[in-house]
Amino acid sequence: MTLGTEVHEPMFRSGVRLKGCQKKLVEQLIKQIHESPGPPTRKLIGRCLATLFNVGDASLLFDSINKCNDTVRNKDDSPSFLQVKLAAISCLGTMYQHLGRMTGRSYEETVYILLKSLKNAESQTRCEVMIAMEKKLCLDLVMQQLLVHKDIFKALRHCLDRSCS
């Protein structure tokens, strides 16, 4: 344990002090998604969001997932918006990986949004979607949603064929 984690660990165990400022923390993290973060920052934002919802109150979870879904759904294909879209995809994958069943039925909607975004995606977005799907498939095997598996397999097989040819 480092000195920094010893100071904050009791706060996260009880979760009481976290709930008071959780809404502000979630808003700040969602705002960081829209600041065009790089790959390490994307992963960190996703892990921080997952930890906040795991330890604190999960009432803002679906709102955060919907905001990320809206970002992915956005039709803006400009290079400046690409990093924002990649951050949203990465955060979705990380949140689903760490939160599992807490995410409920929002999983299916997110899968279809990501699969739809694959159709016109360039290589970076395709790669990030496949990584997010890998994280989701681990969750999905536990949840046994075989109908979604078939759609995921078709879309990702097409992406792999396209990138390998």
TrEMBL record:
Q: State the source organism's domain of life.
A: Eukaryota
What residue stretch is flagged as signal peptide? none
GO terms under biological process = endocytosis; intracellular protein localization; retrograde transport, endosome to Golgi
Q: Which GO terms describe its cellular component?
A: cytosol; endocytic vesicle; Golgi apparatus; membrane
Any idea what this protein is called?
HEAT repeat-containing protein 5B
Organism of derivation:
Trichonephila clavata (Joro spider)
Phylogenetic placement of the source organism: Eukaryota, Metazoa, Ecdysozoa, Arthropoda, Chelicerata
